[in-house]
């Protein structure tokens, strides 16, 4: 039966009733009676009278419900040559014990805790322990450099920082502690303590009394109980790239997020209690928060925490091996991961060694799923493959194939239909709705459903200006796209200075700020250009100051290094060209779209009539093609 249209309509017509019904499926200390309260900015505060604890719902509830011996988490690390499993009871106990250590260090409800960890179970344990105490965690992706960590420390003002002695990238050990020390030295705010999980690949040097050895300290404390949280209390802050160098601290609430994730596990992923989900991402990204840690555990499923790459650890069969070994039902990663597998093993010969009998569906997000990757993955696995669109801000899918209620035919290039709760409209610059098949700004009519961001940490004006001001009564997603005649949504890309590199969201504005700091640089632009493997990669273009006789190659290398030192290797800025001029409008605005088209080698250029000097277009084309 086609139940999606009915469910979708009721989620929009009677949102409070719809979501209160969904909320009943979770364990509350005090069940909410009120669906939501409207804030003055037009967004909703969900379940304002509800009380719960998310770590309780994710762990204790299942233990109490008789699921204690079921596997909650599987750790699979080809880089550390290590595998481990935690039952729900073991994970609950480890979390309660570590929460006891946090409590001993005086961490309490509302305090912030920064987590800078590789993909090891302790990262999830640290997150859940914060949730247990009501402390607000802020996980910083391990690939970010000390400067990025320092910026986040200053913004979140954590009481304490949790880290590990090292991360492992393919076969390179990356000591984390020196980076943490460097970040704390750079930051104005100093966390009181640093808790360090020592890994055997590298022992960190600890500075007493600030630094605490996780393994030895945790055995000396008593486990902590769950703190009762209001549904509207913040669970975490997750920083994401905006258009400037200052990242935005997306704030997530507790109750709305729990209800939305739980709902999505059934509706979007078709994953229930006891099913196995492999989300190959990182806890430093929203995908990791929602579908490695909280979502599967809330649903009583088994989650796999994979410390490795889709290729090279040791080869392109890593995903297939895990699907076979752990009887995975649903596999989720970024399209770039499947492009990497396709590149190394185009005929999927390695797949012949594994059985995908348990695998029912493959999901991709983080960037648009390009039709060739969709088709290849479908063909070699013989499984349905679904694109779905969402953002750090939404916390869970905005558009997806609602397979748990009705499975729709896949249209390549589309992330299918709006998920119940999301009223998606495609708007023209004047705020009017465009016709089907016409492109515009993808906006969501307020109020947003549960689970979405509630504000920007410490900066409500930025939240309003960045998301709620462009179109009155709507949330602006920052993406452009269209709906077709069947209501399928096609996301065509960002309309701002954000790019997606290998599924990692980065700000070209931030890279420009770093390039502009070099004494030889007069002006610069960073654009995202198409890349076969990573989707997009950044490219820098700089004009040197008059009289500066710096060697262009040396300058280019220096600028690449500056970005790597400041943001981290994940920025992937590998090329910076010194150019004599940049195309601009007569009012001095750099024509970035034109630059992108030139760099991508497009023949049909969008040269606006307002261009200041049309001659520079051919000059640049020649230089970029060289
Ligand atoms: N810690 C430290 N360094 C890291 C890191 C981490 N957690 N993650 C990446 N890096 C480094 C890499 O070592 C690499 O460094 P190098 O320039 O010295 O080689 C650089 O950052 C770029 O990394 P990456 O973008 O991962 O490129 P890659 O060539 O190593 O791997 C892919 C390419 C496609 C295999 C990889 O990007 C991938 O698995 N992508 C999936 C991304 C994903 O899951 N995104 C989440 C959204 S769902
Ligand atoms: P992040 O906040 O890191 O999850 O990145 C969110 C951005 O990634 C979105 O605003 C989109 O630009 C892009 N994105 C994520 N998933 C998709 C998708 N399925 N299709 C198209 N773009 C996507």
TrEMBL record:
Gene3D superfamilies tied to this protein: 3.30.300.30, N-terminal domain of ligase-like
Enzyme Commission number, as recorded: 6.2.1.17
Location of the AMP-dependent synthetase/ligase domain: 67-445
Source organism, top-level taxon: Bacteria
A GO term, aspect molecular function: propionate-CoA ligase activity
Designated name of the protein: Propionyl-CoA synthetase
UniProt xrefs under PANTHER family: ACYL-COA SYNTHETASE (PTHR43347), ACYL-COA SYNTHETASE SHORT-CHAIN FAMILY MEMBER 3, MITOCHONDRIAL (PTHR43347:SF3)
Domain AMP-binding enzyme C-terminal: 510-589
Family: Belongs to the ATP-dependent AMP-binding enzyme family.
Top EC class for this record: ligase
Keywords: Ligase
Cross-referenced InterPro entries: ACAS_N, AMP-bd_C, AMP-bd_C_sf, AMP-binding_CS, AMP-dep_synth/lig_dom, ANL_N_sf
NCBIfam families: PRK00174.1 (NF001208)
Entry annotated with the keyword Transport: no
One Pfam family hit: ACAS_N
Residue ranges annotated for the Acetyl-coenzyme A synthetase N-terminal domain, each copy included: 4-56
């Amino acid at each position: 039966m086609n139940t999606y249209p009915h469910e979708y309509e009721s989620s929009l017509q009677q949102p409070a009733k719809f979501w209160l019904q969904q909320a009943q499926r979770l364990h509350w200390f005090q069940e909410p009676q009120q669906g939501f309260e409207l804030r003055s900015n037009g967004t909703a505060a969900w379940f304002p009278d509800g009380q719960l604890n998310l770590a309780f719902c994710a762990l204790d509830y299942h233990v109490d419900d008789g699921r204690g011996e079921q596997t909650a988490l599987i750790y699979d690390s080809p880089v550390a040559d290590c595998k481990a499993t935690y039952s729900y009871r073991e994970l609950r106990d480890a979390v309660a014990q570590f929460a006891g250590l946090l409590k001993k260090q005086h961490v309490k409800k509302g305090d912030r805790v920064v987590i800078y960890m590789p993909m090891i179970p302790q990262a999830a344990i640290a997150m859940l322990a914060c949730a247990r105490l009501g402390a607000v965690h802020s996980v910083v992706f391990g690939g970010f450099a000390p400067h990025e960590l320092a910026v986040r420390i200053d913004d979140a003002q954590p009481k304490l920082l949790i880290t590990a002695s090292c991360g492992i990238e393919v076969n390179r050990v990356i000591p984390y502690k020196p980076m943490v020390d460097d970040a704390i030295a750079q930051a104005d705010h100093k966390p009181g303590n640093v808790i360090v999980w020592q890994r055997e690949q590298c022992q960190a040097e600890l500075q007493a009394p600030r630094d605490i050895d996780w393994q030895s300290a945790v055995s000396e404390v008593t486990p902590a109980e769950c703190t009762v949280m209001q549904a509207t209390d913040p669970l975490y802050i997750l920083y994401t790239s905006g258009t400037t160098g200052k990242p935005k601290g997306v704030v997530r609430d507790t109750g709305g997020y729990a209800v939305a994730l739980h709902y999505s596990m059934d509706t979007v992923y078709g994953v229930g209690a006891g099913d196995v989900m492999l989300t190959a991402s990182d806890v430093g990204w929203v995908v990791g928060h929602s579908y490695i840690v909280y979502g599967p555990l809330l649903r009583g499923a088994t989650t796999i925490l994979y410390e490795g790459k889709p290729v090279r650890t040791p080869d392109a069969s890593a995903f297939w091996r895990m699907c076979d070994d752990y009887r995975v039902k649903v596999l989720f990663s970024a399209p770039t991961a499947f492009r990497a597998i396709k590149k190394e093993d185009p005929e999927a010969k390695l797949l012949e060694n594994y059985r995908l009998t348990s695998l029912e569906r493959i999901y991709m997000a983080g960037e648009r799923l390009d039709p060739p990757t969709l088709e290849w993955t479908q063909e070699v696995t013989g499984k349905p493959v679904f694109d779905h669109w969402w953002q750090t801000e939404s916390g869970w899918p905005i558009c997806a194939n609602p397979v748990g209620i009705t499975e729709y035919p896949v249209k390549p290039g589309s992330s299918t239909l709006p998920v119940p709760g999301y009223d998606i409209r495609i708007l023209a610059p004047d705020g009017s709705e465009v016709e089907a098949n016409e492109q515009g700004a993808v906006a969501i009519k307020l109020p947003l459903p549960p689970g979405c961001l509630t504000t920007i940490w410490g900066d409500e004006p930025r939240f309003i200006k960045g998301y709620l001001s462009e179109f009155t009564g709507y949330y602006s997603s920052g993406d452009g796209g269209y709906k077709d005649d069947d209501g399928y949504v096609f996301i065509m890309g960002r309309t701002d200075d954000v790019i997606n590199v290998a599924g990692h969201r980065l700000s070209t504005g931030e890279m420009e700020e770093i390039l502009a700091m070099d004494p030889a640089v007069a002006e610069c632009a960073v654009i995202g250009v198409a890349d076969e493997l990573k989707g997009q990669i950044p490219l820098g273009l700089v004009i040197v100051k008059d009289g500066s006789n710096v060697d262009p190659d040396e300058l280019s290398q220096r600028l690449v290094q500056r970005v790597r030192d400041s943001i981290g290797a994940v920025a992937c800025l590998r090329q910076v060209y010194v150019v004599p001029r940049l195309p601009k409008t007569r009012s001095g605005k750099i024509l970035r779209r034109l630059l992108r088209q030139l760099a991508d080698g497009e023949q049909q250029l969008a040269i606006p009539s307002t261009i200041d000097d049309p001659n520079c277009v051919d000059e640049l084309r020649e230089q970029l093609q060289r």
